[in-house]
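Sanity check

After download, print the first record. It should look like this:
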Amino acid sequence: MSKLPKVNELGFFEIRLESIGGLGANLAGKLLSEDGVVGNGLNGVGFSSYGSEKKGSPVKAHIRFCDPKINIRDTTPIERPHVVAIFHDALFKTIHCTSGIYPDSTILVNSQKSSDKLKNEMKIPSGTIAIVDATGIALEEQTKANTAMLGALYRILTFLNPESMRQTIRRTFEKKYPHLVEPNIRTFDRGFNEVIFQTYENDDSIPLAPFKRAEPILGYETQTIGGTITNPGNSILKDLSISRAGMLPHFHEDKCINCAACDTACPDFCFVWEEKADKRGRPQMFLQGIDYQYCKGCLKCVHACPVDALSSEREYNDGYADNNRVPHLWDLVIQN
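Expected structure tokens:
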């Protein structure tokens, strides 16, 4: 039986996965909890929470492990995780991913950014930051980022046997998707081997705030009449960068014939047009570029373009989307 390195006052070692729909955090949580119990002899429970079950919507997976002698009577969401795995580094824009962490918690991030930059973005005073380019691994192996994240988690969770997870992956895929077994095992191994760590001691530059349970802003007396959704999901204020899974359309202006096939295919009105005079002085709409704030990386525009003026390229963390974004010309748009 595996021995847990630390536990909370109830005897649990707790893990929280922060993700969006489409990256496989729900399945990763199921595999992790199953392997901890079946493959490593622990007692455990795993469950997920999500809303509309669609790509891009927030997803959380919660996993608790404890000694087999302890009964688990707690199925509440994990508020104080020993380990947090963040499946997309754009989640920091809208979600407090590191809520409730301990001073020595480990935070795994799917990113290409440096640990110092991530520490500043997450505003954490101390702890260990683990970084793995799970998206890049998944694109190269033609799998999903969740398996690479599992590999990195098993490097962090030293009380779990990586070989047992390899067997769990094989058992999960071999009947319905046998062709995915070996690619997923390779993805798992690469996540395990390619994760890097940086530990920070508390330097007092960021105060260590005590844990405080969040209370809902809207209650019985302050609830919006009619169940109004106060956070708009489809408006000029939205930011779909969190929905991207590693790929972006790149615009090559020299090839563009302004046919608007891309605009017709785009579900989110990402393309920015401006009326100018053509060679004969007649008014015509010319494509200026892409407003990446609204682009979720579906790449339908790339397939629609008849002259290869759009190409599917990897979204690296060098600020490509921010540096090449062409904001919409609408008067009401709030430029982020």
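If your output differs, re-run the checksum step. Summary of this record's structure: The longest strand covers residues 58-66.
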